């Protein structure tokens, strides 16, 4: 764990995320990249008019000042922090910044979103999760010392989840946390008998190359099952794969990973399938 990107919007949630990222950085000697997305229109940035150019420079300088003040925190002492300001609020650009700096993790604060806002707009965190190729750790509440001892990883035991599981195993090892796997069994067409689930478990273990103890949890939806199992098992963090669907595919099919990240009060780390 050498490089961590932390998006900053100067909210209390982004400070919570920075505190967690700093805790991880201190344990692993990682560099934090503080990324602020400055919302400037392309017309304003590309303008050759003197007044607009001055206005653009003023906004950038103001953002630099605010970011410097935001990063003046006692918990960042002895942590290497690199400030980055981008001109557009394009969530795919966060993934590009992560790739450019060979980041291992994105740590982001979130307050979630509900109702119609969630359906038609979604939280910023959901959009980052959707576009990110690397794990995204979502933080909702203040954590003074991020030191998880148990991590729950939920998946449907399909082959497409093997790579996500392997990355979850790596992250759990980085955090020195026990990794527990859970399969959520739901009613209706998705319901499987105990023997059918056991067959899936055996097949999944054969594919990953070693035996795993996988819990079976029954609930009315996968999202509720993941959240409820996390609470019942005393987990400190939830790991979940996500397809990162975009456009109409996301609108009609949604993403369980994004929903869990949006609604969980526990820290959630997502892994792109």
Automatic annotation (TrEMBL):
Transmembrane segments: none annotated. Residues 1-140, 227-271 form the UspA domain. InterPro entries: Rossmann-like_a/b/a_fold (IPR014729), Universal_stress_UspA (IPR006015), UspA (IPR006016). It comes from the Bacteria. Pfam families: Usp (PF00582). Belongs to the universal stress protein A family. This is Universal stress protein. It comes from Maribacter chungangensis.
